Structure formats: structure tokens, C-alpha cells
Amino acid sequence: MQILLATRNHGKVRELRALLKGLPFEVIGLEGFPHVSEIEETGNSFSKNARIKASGYALQCGVHTLAEDSGLEVAALGGKPGVHSARYAGKETDHDVKIAKLLSEFEMSRSVDRSARFVSHVALADRTGKILFEAEGICDGTIANEARGENGFGYDPIFIPDGYDQTLGELSDDVKNSISHRAAAIAKIIRYLRDFA
Predict the structure, then answer these.
(1) Which domain range does residue 42 map to?
(2) How far apart are alpha carbons 70 and 123 in whole angstroms?
(3) CATH of the domain at 80
(4) DSSP strand E in the chain: where?
(5) pLDDT class for 8, splitting at 50, 70, 90?
(6) Cβ-count burial of 160 within 10 angstroms (0-12 exposed, 13-18 middle, 19+ buried)?
(7) Distance of alpha carbon 154 from alpha carbon 133, whole angstroms
(8) Residues 13-37, mean pLDDT to the nearest whole number
(9) What is the number of domains present in the chain?
(10) Which residues participate in catalysis according to the annotation?
């Protein structure tokens, strides 16, 4: 059986493929479906966006589809950027610009509370678009004073997970894939997929 990863984010595809390694499925990406229309993330929560994408791409491609929506929630910013993490400072803007904007807004908040968390919600749809399973993962941590590290993607260089001194941008893929929000969510869905197989 094939499972389609419903994202064009190369960093996310690489991470999800590594997390799903060893399952008795062929994990494929959207690059195999060049004429598929992009599904807009119109939900007001990570779970709604994951379901929208899983159902939408499954219906277009006729393949079981795994979609994930995730983002960074910063306590001092009232949970922002949250579901708008990918579109923060503009959808097509580099993450360097997004990170600079977030750090600037944090400084302007004058808060001493650097706590933050990454949230990931995954949804699996069958080829008819019916949602079969959902799971959520959370990684708690703090916001670094500046971006550090070249590993990972997105906001990883400014997020220090609890129990570590390094940012996700400095930690190895193996460590990140054992502690991240995405790893926690995927671990739950893997249990379902093993029974499903």
C-alpha cells in the first residue's frame, strides 16, 4: 500500500520519511502528482488543517494520505504564531525573516517568559477522503536569544527543547526525531498503521 505525504515542504518530507522508515508501506510525496491543486490551510487549528489537507489530497490523488500541520506557540506572544507559523511575515518569506520578526516581537513584549512549544497534528485519510486516525504531539521548550544551528528547518534554530541546552537547529537528526512534536505525533499514528497493515 502507498501512503502519500501531503506536503511540498522538503524538510518536512525528509523528516516524515525518516520517522516512517521500516513500515510496510511505500511512502510517496506530492512530486509524483504534478497536476494536483494545492489545498489551502483554512482551518483555525492544527487539527482542522491536518484533516483538510489529508482529505483534500486523498480525494485528488486516490491514495491513502497522511497530512501534518504544526507550528510554534510562544507564551509571551499569546500563542503566536501558532497556526499561522508558515505564513508569519508572509507565506513566501524565508524563515530567516520569520525568525527575525518573531524575535523582534518577543523583545517588544518585554516579557521574561521565554516558554514556547511546538505542536504537531497528523491525520490519515483513506483514498475516499475519510479520516481514519488522528494524533497530536507536543514538544515544550524555550525561545533562544538568537538563531543557532543549521540543522532542521523552520523555527528550529530558535527553539530549545526542555532538557537540552542546544536548539533543534543544533541537535542531530537522530536526537530531534526522538524528541520532537512531530516524532511524538507520528509515534502514535505508527501504532495505528502497524495494526492497519
Answers:
(1) 2-196
(2) 12
(3) 3.90.950.10
(4) 2-5, 26-29, 64-74, 115-125, 131-143, 159-161
(5) confident
(6) buried
(7) 26
(8) 87
(9) 1
(10) 69
